[in-house]
Write a structure and sequence with these properties.
57 residues, 3 helices, elongated
Length: 57
């Protein structure tokens, strides 16, 4: 039974190492885009798309 756990741990380590290698930081990039989405109740409360954006930002 421990053989199955060991292969899972080895696979997790391999995936982590591969992701870590690909994740390079670009020092010129200091911000990122953020996707905001309001549900229908939020929209109903504020009435317009512009008002929702104003409240969220």
């Amino acid at each position: 039974m421990t053989g199955g756990n060991r292969s899972t741990i080895d696979l997790s380590n391999l995936i982590f190492r591969n992701v870590n290698k690909r994740a390079t930081v670009d020092p010129k990039k200091t911000t990122c885009m953020l996707y905001l989405q309001a549900d229908h109740q939020f929209f109903t409360k504020y009435g317009t798309e512009e008002a929702c954006i104003e409240v969220m930002t």
